Amino acid sequence: MTTLQDQGTGSPGEVRGAPAPRARRGVPSRRSVAGVVLPIMSVGSLLLLWALFYDSTRFLPSPGSVVDEAPEFLSDGETWDDVYVSLRRLFLGLGAGVAIGVAFATLMRANDRLRHLLSVYVGISLRVPSTIAAIMTLVAFKRAEFGYPAVIAFITFPFVSVGLSDGLASADRRLDDMARLYRFGPVTRFRHVLAPFAAPFIFGALRNAHALAWKVIVVVEIFGAAEQGIGSEFNFAFRSFLLVDLMLWLLLFMTILLALDYGALRTIERYVGRWRPAPRN
Amino acid sequence: MDLTTASDPSAGTSVVAVDGLGVSYEGTPAIDRIDLHVEPGELVSILGPSGCGKSTMLNVLAGLLAPSAGHVAIAGVEVAGPRGPAPDLGYVFQDHRLLPWRTVRRNIELALAAKGVPKAEWGERIDRYLGLLKIDRFAGSWPLRLSGGQRQRVSIARALAVEPAMVLMDEPLSTLDEVTARSMRQELLDVWERTGATIVFVTHSIREAVFLSDRIVILSQGPATVVEDYRVPLSRPRWYEDPALAQVEAEIVEKVLDRWGIDGTIEAEAT
């Protein structure tokens, strides 16, 4: 139940990780050998540890038994139904979280009074433990389906808002002056001046929010006693002491999470940031 | 002269007409009184010590700041600050001010689009001005992959490509190394001669002003007034190391020494 131990991730310090626009990135801006091989090696080392030490624990099944069960697990339509349900909740929630976060950041930047007002909301939702948020939201929505994305949105929006606000606060006025002198209209200014400037901050915040959303969705599904979703399957496997199933779900969960982070988010981020000077080695 | 920038067709009208300009911030004067007229095709330098109110004056010309007194008109249109109509000018800043996330071509396209130039003309116009600045091969490049000098060329190409009534240049070569700056000065003159653009060039380097300009408007220490509207008595083409040029420079140093005082920034280069 790794997911239950990660409640502390809502610390504000995490958001500060949003990258400075010109800073050299931890992730290589181009697909380098190190950028592909090293993450694979780290995943491989975890699998190796599992293979070496599962025997000395009472809660880890053998890799062999998991591999044996995998084809049936993966070809079962119900597996993917559960994945779909969780993904839908996650993306709806994350989408709403990003939208609210961007709106908050924009409003906070536009008006000083609004900033004082809204930053309290951001501060509160940043610090409410996600378990509490999950329980309260689900109760408030009477465990309706809508409650799941609502929790995700509530948990993720402050990360987007803080990350983006910090980014916008560091914007210098020089490009604004240029845009004014060359008479750029409001749409052009937003599309070509402000949005590209804010993009790295949005991506940084989005990656944090995305990781957090995955942690939270499982918890929410367990607390909400959802009938479908990855969390409900975790819960069922755990209660029934189906260790192989638990492991299969964990592996599938991690695969989807990493595929979305490395495969989708970072690829898009690299494309959007392709204008940066190539890192010198 | 298909390269001629659009200037006011009514001959005899100054492209830039500044009459009795005064600017004060909360009662403190930044500009006391400036009169300045620039004719079509002229290259006029504005020379003043640091803190004399040059940037204030540029902000007024650019329509970012309203004058407290007097009138400013560019191409016959009154410039009255942020609420008035935007003046028809191209602007070259000290730093390149290119959007780093847009290619060189796209950067210029955005300025052309904002100016209302029909899309059909963009390609030819951009190629022409990038060619003029000898950077046509970088049209598809990202600005941050270019050298400082190349970026500034793009910035100049952008300012010229909108074919404004006047191009305002605010110490555009001051951040470049001296060798690059020298070749850029020479090329700037070539481009100016070929386009017939009207240029107002702000600098604190006396040598640079003498080398480039038809006239030099010398400002006092702030709050600024015009010390002298000086016509550079040198024929073109000019040579940066020309002893005659050094002599004119010395003459101007002499003029401003008392006015600017010991604390005034005088950047006379050693010959």
Explain this structure:
- The complex is a heterodimer of chains A (281) and B (271).
- Chain A is mainly α.
- Chain A has a domain at 77-272: MetI-like fold.
- Chain A has helices spanning 33-53, 63-75, 77-110, 112-127, 130-140, 147-169, 174-181, 186-223, 230-239, 243-272.
- In chain A, helix 3 (77-110) crosses helix 8 (186-223).
- The two termini of chain A are 41 Å apart.
- Residues 1-29 of chain A have low confidence and may be disordered.
- Chain B is α/β, with parallel strands linked by helices.
- Chain B folds into 2 domains: 1-82 and 167-264, Rossmann fold, CATH 3.40.50; 100-163.
- Helix content of chain B is 34%, strand content 23%.
- Chain B has a 10-stranded mixed β-sheet, sandwiched between helices.
- In chain B, a hairpin with a 2-residue loop joins strand 1 and strand 2.
- The longest helix of chain B has 18 residues, at 178-195.
- Chain B starts with 15 loop residues before the first strand and ends in an 11-residue tail after the last helix.
- The relative contact order of chain B is 0.18.
- The model of chain B is unreliable at 1-12 and 264-271 (pLDDT under 50).
- The chains are: A mainly alpha (281), B alpha/beta (271).
- Chains A and B meet through helix 7 and helix 8 of A and helix 2 of B.
Question: What's the gist of this structure?
Answer:
The complex is a heterodimer of chains A (281) and B (271). Chain A is mostly helical.
Q: CA-to-CA gap between the ends of chain B?
A: 38 Å
Strand/helix succession of chain B: EEEHEEEHHHEHEHEEH
Return the domain count of chain B. Answer: 2
Q: What is the distance, rounded to the nearest whole angstrom, between the alpha carbons of the first and last residues of chain A?
A: 41 Å
The percentage helix of chain B is 25-40%
> Any low-confidence stretches of chain A, pLDDT <50, length ≥5?
1-29
Q: Given the helix and strand composition of chain B, which structural class is it?
A: alpha/beta
CATH topology of the largest domain in chain B, which one? Rossmann fold
**CATH architecture classification of the largest domain in chain B:** 3-Layer(aba) Sandwich
Strand content of chain A: under 5%
What kind of oligomer do you see?
Answer: heterodimer
What form of chain A results from the Cα inertia axes? globular
Strand content bin of chain B: 15-25%
Largest sheet of chain B: 10 strands, mixed
